[in-house]
Write a structure and sequence with these properties.
This protein is of the alpha/beta class. It starts with a strand and ends with a helix. The strands form 3 sheets. The protein has a 6-stranded mixed sheet with strand order 8-9-10-5-11-12, sandwiched between helices. Strands 4-1-6-7 form a 4-stranded antiparallel sheet, covered by helices on one side. A two-stranded antiparallel sheet has the order 2-3. Helices cover 36% and strands 25% of the residues.
């Protein structure tokens, strides 16, 4: 079953058009990526999906329901959770407060994400439960941002620059967590620059160049075609 269907969207900021007919789809339970160099429209695509920047043309369907043009809060309630670039946690709330502020199980998951489950998934958050969000390290803030998204029990988890700016050991911890989420059946859409890790993690990939889709395929296809890496990813 297709959980997300993006069909020919065109998105602009004022008079500056960024996306030109972008299409992609994600099956329920899949892990998919958006790839491309900086400034090619990846974040704008995520913003369009989440209702933060509505597309001017095209359509977006989630679980069969058309969502383009809807307010971001209504889209979030349907089961889409975004871990934004820069994390954007609340610096003056504690770790615990950041997490419980978003707790919901609107779709009645049989094994929902709870505070205790997030603490078990990220033990460091349990240790820092009373610390203010602004006092955490970058890696701890990223774990908190992921945990906050999981507390909404999303059907689709979206991560923008999942491991950007993290120390190597912390980066490996994030990849381990994403592997675990995939094994549990969580549907994920992720942006990151570490192509080798994304190939190991993901089922399918979409590459953007100047706001257009220039390549789509499976991990096996991307792993076998290093010409695509050099042409579009600068590797």
């Amino acid at each position: 079953m297709k959980l997300l269907e993006v069909d020919g969207i065109e998105t602009a900021y004022a008079t500056s058009q960024v996306l030109f007919g972008v299409s992609l789809s994600i099956e329920e339970g899949e892990v998919a990526t958006l790839l491309g160099r900086n400034g090619m429209g990846k974040t704008t695509t995520l913003r369009s999906i989440c209702g933060l920047t509505a597309p001017r043309r095209g359509s977006i369907r989630f679980a069969g329901e058309r969502i383009d043009g809807r307010p971001a809060d209504r889209i979030g309630r349907l089961g889409i959770a975004l871990v934004p670039e820069g994390r954007q946690i609340f610096p003056n709330l504690t770790v615990r407060e950041n997490l419980i502020a978003f707790a919901a199980n609107r779709h009645r998951a049989s094994e929902p994400w709870t505070l205790e489950r997030v603490y078990a998934f990220f033990p460091v958050l349990a240790e820092r439960a009373r610390n203010l969000g602004g006092r955490l390290s970058g890696g701890e803030q990223q774990m908190l941002a992921i945990g906050r998204a999981l507390m909404t029990n999303p059907r689709l988890l979206i991560l923008d620059e999942a491991s950007e700016g993290l120390a190597p050991l912390v980066r490996e911890e994030i990849w381990r967590c994403l592997d675990t989420l995939r094994a549990s059946g969580q549907t994920i859409l992720v942006i990151d620059k570490y192509v080798e890790r994304l190939i190991a993690l993901s089922d399918r990939h979409t590459i953007l160049e100047r706001g257009q889709v220039v390549w789509q395929g499976t991990s096996a296809e991307l792993g076998a075609d290093h010409g695509v890496w050099h042409r579009y990813l600068g590797i």
